[in-house]
Amino acid sequence: MFSLMQHKLLGRAVRSDDWPQLGEPTQEQVARAIEAGELERAKDLARYMIPEGKALHDLFCDWIWDIFSKVGAAQGDQAVYELCRATQETWMMKRTWKGFMALGVADRVYLTAEIMRAHRCGPRQDGELEIVEDAQRISIVMDPCGSGGRMRRGDPVDGTPSRLGPPYNFGVTQEAHDWCWGQKGVPYYCVHCAINEILPIEWGGWPLWVTEYNPDHNAPCQWHFYKEPALIPERYFTRLGFAKPDDL
After folding, report:
1. Phi/psi zone of residue 10: left (φ > 0), alpha (ψ -120 to 50 degrees), beta?
2. pTM score, two decimals?
3. Are 213 and 181 in contact (CB under 8 A)?
4. pLDDT confidence band for 139 (50 / 70 / 90)
5. For the residues 41-69, what does the mean pLDDT come to?
6. Which residue has the higher pLDDT, 138 or 21?
7. In terms of CB atoms within 10 Å, which of 61, 74, 86, 247 comes out highest?
8. Dihedral of CA 35/38/40/41: which sign?
9. 35 to each of 27, 32, 46, 123, how far by Cα in Å?
10. Torsion angle, alpha carbons of 200, 69, 220, 118, to 10
């Protein structure tokens, strides 16, 4: 039997079904509730899927930043960059780059929006995004993004503070480097977004998207997908230590 129980420790509802039902995917229970005309139960389950999927996602993001912080404290900024780059330049970003190069800009945005919805963006961490288009680009606006933005601001949904302060005290770049947009104080976690630009520039001459990183953690994070490589402003190359190619 389906049941949502208010959990005292977590301060929110948790599924407490009978054992045979407890392992069933929540989305399947949503579908069955709709088919049975039990619309209030379907709404409760649909809303429950947000915190259900959030806890492990957030734990891993916090853990990654903590690991990078330990590396930075022991070995310095460059070691964080080398570790992060070593993981991104093999299967992960190479696969994305090859796939995205075969797609038009609209398809790149569709797929990225799907990823960022699953990334728990938005003030309620339910995947809310804003998509903005102009003559030159399509932008995904995350206010905040579900990882670096949430961790920098603190988590109002869970009631936890910014990871830049206690009890976390996660690390940031101690100097300005090309691989962190020429800025000091960039969270070690957010360095991977700069590497997401660096690697495609090295492989193909231009970034698939550019990150509008803002030192103000209250500002939204934006990813810009330019409709043609030639439209990408030169500043997005020079801030990473590259010159914009003349033949884009």
Report:
1. alpha
2. 0.93
3. yes
4. very high
5. 93
6. 138
7. 61
8. negative
9. 13, 5, 14, 31
10. 70
Extract the tokens encoding 151.
Answer: 């961790």
Answer yes or no: is pLDDT of 1 > 70.
Answer: no
C-alpha distances in Å from residue 23, one per residue of 18, 67, 90: 9, 32, 35
CA 194 vs CA 146, 159, 191, 215: distances in Å: 17, 29, 5, 14
User: Helices 77-87 and 39-75: crossing angle, nearest 10°?
Assistant: 130
Are 76 and 67 a contacting pair, CB within 8 Å? no
Query: CA angle, corner 140, sides to 136 and 146, nearest 5?
Result: 160
Q: Given 3-state DSSP classes, what are the helix, strand and coil percentages for the chain, each rounded to the nearest 5?
A: 50, 10, 40
Q: Distance between CA 141 and CA 211 in Å, rounded?
A: 10
CB atoms within 10 A of CB 218: 10
> What is the mean pLDDT of the segment spanning 28-38?
94
Three-state DSSP at 108 gives: helix
Mean per-residue pLDDT over the chain, rounded: 95
pLDDT at 33: 93
Q: What is the pLDDT of residue 8?
A: 83
**Cβ atoms of residues 32 and 24 within 8 Å:** no
What values do phi and psi take at 81, rounded to 5?
-60, -45
Question: What's the rounded Cα separation, in Å, for the pair 122 and 132?
Answer: 15
Q: What is the pLDDT confidence band of residue 106, given thresholds at 50, 70 and 90?
A: very high
